């Protein structure tokens, strides 16, 4: 309702109408389907920390287990893989359907839990339960992993890159690479160096393709295959240990190979630009 001021003859809207408009604003902040998938990502990350604590760390501290429990370690990593599936689909759904204004913030916070805290905590617990590990050094490595993910997510929110690429190793891929390095049971020094190298790749400027179309299907198939390998290892199936080592090795090889291809492509592009510049200058000379 509009009321006319008799002195100014100007109209004004009562405060009640303004309050009604303010009450309608939260409607735009309702969770979308993509946001629900993002929250599933965060839940999986938290449960990965839970299983790492209750199934690996506590039994080790109480003397019930002398090493990493297979079932709990496999469950924690499978939960991180499930988080990666949620992270893959929430982006696809957000592009197809409406996403809320909270979507980007929810995605970053969930990624920090599932692909920052969970793998860093996994490295920390590894340093406490593995026989040849050094707890304090492993703790420092875990901090580096966590900070790398924090910096990567913060940069992702501030820096604009060309469409279809990520700058630096995506945090889900980095998290799965970190846990693969730990599960491969290499000597402690080699494990730590590989973990630190993965953390560096996450904050590097190496370009990684975004999982869209056929690449998204390939990523999903790889995640499902990794879950199967982990399940076979957890239940001590015939050849389960070999399957686990093969899957972990492939993950590490992919993590090391993609930067090499990206670097080679950048070098070839640079050389091609220099060659075109020389040809252009030569064509201008009479």
Write the layout of secondary structure elements.
Blueprint: E1 3-4, E2 11-12, H1 15-24, H2 33-62, H3 70-96, H4 103-129, H5 135-158, E3 165-167, H6 171-183, H7 188-203, E4 207-209, H8 214-234, H9 240-284
Antiparallel strand pairs: 1-2, 3-4
Helix proportion? over 70%
- Average residue pLDDT: 82
Strand order of the largest sheet: 1-2
Low-confidence regions: 13-25
* Main pleated-sheet profile: 2 strands, antiparallel
Count of helices? 9
Structural class: mainly alpha
Total beta-strand segments? 4
Shape: globular
Distance between the termini: 79 Å
H-E string: EEHHHHHEHHEHH
Strand content: under 5%
Query: Rg, please?
Result: 25 Å
Question: How would you explain this protein's 3D organization?
Answer:
- Helix content is 74%, strand content 3%.
- α2 runs antiparallel to α3 and α3 packs antiparallel against α6.
- A hairpin with a 6-residue loop joins β1 and β2.
- The chain contains nine helices and four strands.
Key attributes of the depicted protein:
4 strands; globular; 286 residues; two-stranded antiparallel ribbon; mainly alpha
Short summary:
By secondary structure, the chain is mainly alpha-helical. It has helices spanning 15-24, 33-62, 70-96, 103-129, 135-158, 171-183, 188-203, 214-234, 240-284, and strands at residues 3-4, 11-12, 165-167, 207-209.
């Amino acid at each position: 309702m509009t009321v006319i001021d008799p002195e100014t003859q100007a109209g004004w809207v009562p405060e009640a109408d303004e309050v009604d408009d303010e009450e309608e604003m939260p409607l735009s902040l309702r969770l979308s389907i993509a946001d629900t998938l993002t929250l599933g990502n965060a839940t999986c990350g938290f449960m990965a920390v839970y299983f790492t604590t209750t199934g690996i760390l506590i039994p080790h501290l109480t003397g019930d287990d002398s090493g990493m429990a297979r079932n709990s370690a496999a469950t924690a990593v499978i939960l991180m893989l499930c988080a990666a599936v949620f992270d893959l689909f929430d982006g696809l759904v957000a592009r197809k359907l409406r996403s809320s204004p909270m979507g980007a913030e929810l995605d970053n916070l969930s990624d920090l839990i599932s692909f920052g805290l969970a793998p860093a905590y996994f490295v920390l617990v590894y340093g406490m339960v593995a026989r040849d590990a050094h707890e304090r050094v492993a703790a420092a490595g875990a901090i580096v992993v966590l900070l790398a993910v924090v910096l990567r997510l913060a940069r992702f929110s501030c820096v604009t890159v060309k469409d279809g690429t990520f700058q630096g190793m995506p945090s889900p891929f980095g998290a799965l690479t970190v846990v693969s390095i730990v599960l491969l049971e290499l000597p402690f020094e080699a494990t730590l160096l590989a973990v630190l190298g993965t953390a560096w790749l996450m904050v590097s400027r190496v370009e990684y393709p975004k999982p869209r179309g056929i690449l998204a299907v390939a990523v999903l198939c790889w995640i499902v295959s990794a879950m199967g390998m982990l399940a076979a290892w957890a239940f001590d199936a015939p050849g389960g240990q070999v399957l686990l080592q093969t899957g972990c090795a492939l993950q590490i090889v992919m993590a090391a190979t993609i930067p090499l291809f990206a670097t080679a492509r950048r070098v070839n592009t640079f050389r091609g630009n220099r060659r075109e510049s020389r040809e252009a200058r030569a064509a201008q000379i009479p």
